[in-house]
Design goal:
The complex is a heterodimer of chains A (450) and B (302).
Chain A lengths: L1 H15 L2 H27 L5 E7 L15 E5 L5 H7 L7 E5 L8 E4 L5 H21 L6 H8 L7 E4 L5 E4 L1 H35 L2 H6 L4 H58 L6 H24 L2 H29 L7 H21 L6 H6 L6 H8 L6 H29 L9 H9 L3
Parallel strand pairs in A: 1-2, 1-3
Antiparallel strand pairs in A: 3-4, 5-6
Helix pairs in contact in A: 1-8, 2-8, 6-8, 6-10, 6-11, 6-13, 8-9, 8-10, 10-13, 10-14, 11-13, 14-15
Chain B lengths: L1 E12 L2 E12 L3 E5 L6 H8 L7 E6 L2 E2 L8 E4 L11 H11 L4 H14 L15 H13 L5 E5 L7 H16 L3 E5 L3 H7 L2 E6 L2 E7 H9 L2 E7 L10 E9 L2 E8 L5 H11 L2 E6 L4 H12 L1
Parallel strand pairs in B: 3-8, 3-9, 6-7, 7-8
Antiparallel strand pairs in B: 1-2, 1-4, 4-5, 9-10, 11-13, 11-14, 12-13
Helix pairs in contact in B: 2-3, 2-4
Chain lengths: 450, 302
């Protein structure tokens, strides 16, 4: 046991002291944090090309000027232009496309363009036109004070999701938060298991090619060496993970207080106001501005509340459990692969069967967010090779306790079986040189005695 | 008294028999040569002694008692291929291997410092293994092998990669270790080092022991009635039915004759004949080199 500890210590220290580890550990959270902060900013400020779109109306001019310009698109009205002419020349005239409105087919205007227009543009056109058409239809009823009535009856409905647990306690939750957590949980699991599993493999190959392994197994049992290595690297992973979480939180907090609150909050407010104004077609009195902004802020704080309402204890416990067992399972397979080959290029043929379940799990996990209770999500969160990733993606949406317990039990049984088998392959593999190993060979090693 | 004994060891990998009923008995404080062509089963036997793999059948005894897992601390092993972590500082590596052999950290440090000084490699402490030449790495490897003062040390091809100066240093260290009471098994193809160092040998071929015993005894046994005479001047010795001339040459004003007696002929008779022919300078029973014996035995078996 003492010797296993010596091995763990070496595996841990040599990795933690590496320059690449220190750089990755410090850089990754900065990158993550900048993603968290920069991405929304980029989405807010927009980074698209500015487009000019010609609007041509056939016969009538009722819908001229109904589509307002946006940040990225200018709508230029060309009354009296022949559509057949402009279609030929809009490109050279500097237009992105031509919107053709005909009273004969009001609900299906045609947008001519050289490239597929983005959804945002189409939404904008349909939204503006629908509103105008509805307004015109309403006008035909000759209702007095139509505008103020319309303003009065405008309503927004935001469903609030409440989860009810077995004890009948309800908790208000947010699907957005759950999705974010599912995504982060599943992806992080994939990243950690794969990254550190591959490190185990590389470590085993290094020891084998440099023949250190012969010296070591003359002092300790091969299984001890394998376990020491796997545990040592797991600790490296956990260390890095903890530092990442801490640094990410710290960076986000610092950035939020220094930048967001000073500059961007005002910008955000302006953006929100602007969008509200756009909805009301510029006819918003000044006092409504304030009234419309504060619900947005209230919603923001509600999102935070909802995030706190998530079952963090379960999520973190499950994450650590699935990381440890999933890592042990995959790392032992990686160790066995590393022992069976002479160099890293030879690992290819064995890597594929290992990579497939992981990639599959990731794909299912992404799909799970749309439908966390589906049969596919259920089965993949029970099957041990995929369960760590898929279950992490399901848990934020709420999973029945029996499913978690079933999944975890199968996971424990499987990882023990895998470690045991891997140790057998490893024991034989590390001492075999110069022969290309086949699956048949590995099967034979599994059955060697003592 | 044998320090280490392997009795009737057999090891099979699938259909391939790596060792077939092999026994060796290594006397205490002796240097024991393990010889054999490539693929004969030497490495398998060494791995079994190191408990890296277990035998299918047979018995292993250390000091007359059954070899146990904890006995690794009494055994030192230097494999043929140099096993060092490329990116790890050599001082730390030595410490790591010593601790794996069960030494405490302070004790290991003390001994490493002693050996680094002794092998004149103190300056290398903080160097990574990959920065060292092959011979330098071997010195470090040697040191890690003997650090825990094992009773039984196994060297697999210890001299490959060394220049003559360093090879000599290592040779003297091996002799010194024996003087201090260690028993040494070494496997090699280098027959001159066997003649120089080994007290006993075992020759393994195709998983079986084909020759075993004291080097001196084996050599005189294989000498098989061959003698070498050196005479002054250019002299011709003629066959007379009692012996056959194998070789006769005249170099440096001396004649060297190698002859083989036919049957029971006393040495005196040969000497009488020789003295009649000219001035005798020397007379020796011609011992075949271990190299010759090795080739002859292996070829006769094939």
């Amino acid at each position: 046991m003492n010797k296993v500890f010596t091995i763990i210590k070496r595996e841990y220290l040599t990795r933690v002291r590496k320059k690449s580890f220190i750089i990755m550990t410090i850089l990754a959270p900065l990158l993550m944090a900048s993603l968290v902060v920069v991405m929304p900013l980029m989405m807010m400020s927009g980074d698209k090309d500015h487009k000019k779109i010609a609007v041509v109306e056939e016969i009538t001019t009722d819908y001229i000027n109904v589509i307002p310009d946006t940040k990225d698109e200018d709508f230029v009205y060309l009354p009296g232009t022949d559509i057949n002419d402009i279609i030929k020349s809009f490109d050279t005239l500097g237009y992105y496309g031509v919107l053709f409105i005909s009273p004969r087919a009001l609900t299906s205007p045609i947008l001519y363009s050289k490239s597929q227009p983005d959804i945002g543009l189409l939404d904008h056109i349909s939204g503006s036109m629908e509103k105008e058409i509805e307004k015109n239809k309403l006008k035909e009823y000759n209702i007095e004070n139509l505008d103020s009535i319309l303003k009065q009856i405008r309503t927004r409905v935001n469903p609030v999701t409440n989860l009810v647990d077995e004890a009948g306690v309800t908790t208000e939750t947010s699907t957005g938060i759950a999705m974010a957590l599912a995504y982060i949980g599943g992806f992080l699991m994939y990243l950690l298991v794969f990254m550190f599993g591959a490190q185990v493999m590389r470590g085993v190959i290094e020891e084998k090619t440099s023949r250190v392994v012969e010296v070591i197994v003359s002092s300790v049992k091969p299984a001890q060496l394998m376990l020491g290595k796997i545990i040592g690297i797991a600790l490296v992973g956990l260390t890095q993970f903890m530092i990442w979480i801490f640094l990410t939180i710290a960076t986000v907090a610092i950035v939020k207080t220094t930048i967001l609150e000073k500059t961007n909050m005002t910008e955000m407010t302006q953006n929100i106001t602007k969008s509200v104004m756009e909805q009301n077609q510029g006819q918003v009195p000044a006092d409504i501005k304030v009234a419309e902004v504060s619900p947005q802020m209230a919603e923001f704080s509600k999102i935070l509340d909802n995030a706190m309402n998530q079952n963090w204890l379960l999520i973190i416990t499950a994450f650590i459990f699935y990381f440890v067992t999933g890592y042990l399972l995959y790392a032992s397979v990686f160790a066995a692969i590393g022992s069976a080959v002479d160099n890293e290029t030879e690992t290819q043929q064995f890597m594929l069967p290992v990579t497939i379940p992981i990639i599959l799990a990731l794909m299912v996990a992404m799909g799970t967010m749309q439908n966390p209770g589906s049969a596919i999500a259920f089965w993949f969160s029970i099957i041990p090779l995929t369960s760590p990733i898929v279950m992490m993606a399901r848990i934020p949406f709420g999973v029945p306790a029996w499913q978690i317990i079933l999944s975890m039990s199968i996971m424990v049984i499987t990882f023990i079986a895998f470690v045991w088998m891997a140790a057998k392959v490893y024991r034989t593999g590390i001492l075999m040189y110069g022969k290309k190993t086949s699956w048949k060979e590995i099967w034979k090693w599994l059955r060697y005695a003592g | 008294m044998s320090l280490f004994e392997a009795k009737n060891v057999t090891k099979q990998f699938g259909n391939f028999k790596a060792l077939d009923d092999v026994s060796i008995s290594v006397p205490e404080k002796c240097i024991y040569g393990l010889l054999g062509p490539n693929g004969a089963g030497k490495t398998t036997l060494i791995r079994i002694i190191n408990q890296i793999t277990g035998p299918d059948s047979g018995e292993l005894l250390l000091n007359g008692k059954k070899l146990l897992p904890d006995d690794v601390q009494y055994i030192g092993y230097m494999p043929e291929e140099r096993g060092l972590y490329k990116k790890m500082k050599v001082g730390e590596q030595a410490l790591y291997f010593a601790q794996l052999k069960g030494l405490s950290k302070p004790e290991a440090m003390k001994r490493i410092k002693y050996w680094f000084k002794k092998l004149d490699i103190v300056d290398w402490w903080g160097k990574k293994a990959e920065e060292l030449s092959k011979g330098m790495q071997q010195k470090v490897q040697f040191l890690t092998t003997v650090l825990h003062e094992p009773k039984l040390i196994i060297f697999d091809e210890p001299f490959t990669g060394f220049d003559p100066v360093n090879a000599n240093i290592i040779k003297n260290e091996i002799l010194f270790l024996r003087e201090r009471g260690a028993t040494i098994i070494f496997s090699t193809h280098n027959m001159s080092s066997v003649e120089e160092l080994c007290d006993n040998i075992t020759l393994i071929n195709k998983a079986k022991t084909i020759l075993e015993g004291k080097v001196s005894e084996i050599r005189s046994k294989w000498a098989a009635n061959e003698y070498e005479l050196v005479l002054d001047g250019n002299v011709k010795i003629h066959e007379n039915g009692k012996y056959n001339i194998l070789n006769q040459e005249f170099v440096d004003n001396k004649t060297t004759v190698r002859l083989k007696t036919v049957s029971d002929v006393s040495v005196n008779e040969i000497l009488n004949t020789a003295m009649k022919s000219g001035n005798l300078i020397s007379f020796n029973p011609a011992l075949p080199s271990m190299n010759e014996i090795f080739i002859r035995v292996v070829e006769s078996r094939n």
